[in-house]
Automatic annotation (TrEMBL):
Residues 1-125 form the START-like domain. This is Uncharacterized conserved protein YndB, AHSA1/START domain. SUPFAM superfamilies: Bet v1-like. It comes from the Bacteria.
Amino acid sequence: MEDKVKFELEFVIQSSPQLLFQYLATPSGLSEWFADNVNSRGEKFTFIWDGAEEVARMLKRKSDEFVRFAWEYNEDDSYFEMRIIVDEITKDVSLFITDFAEEDEVEEAKMLWDNQVSDLKQILGST
C-alpha cells in the first residue's frame, strides 16, 4: 500500500466558532454540508453519500476548536481533522482542514474539500 500524503487547507469563514463547531461535530450539522446524511452512535459516525455508507470514528474533539475523525477502513494512522482558528488580532475565523490522500489523489481531495466547504459557507451565509 502506498503511503498517504498529508495536506492542509485553510478557509476563512464568517461565523462564530460556536456556530461553526456545530456544523463540524454533530450529525445534523455534518448532514447539511459534508454528506447526504450522517448518523452517530457514540464515537461512531456513519456518513452516507448517494446511498453508500462510510463509517468513521471520532478520535478527538474539543468544543469550539476541533474534531478529528478516522475512517474505519484505514489501515494506517491517517485521519481528517477540522480545526477552528481565530486570529487573535482581527478575530477572523478560519477553518483549517488536515487530511491524507494517496499522492496521485491529493489534488482531487483538495477540490472535494473546496466544494464541501463552499457548501458550508453558503449555509452559514459566509462569502
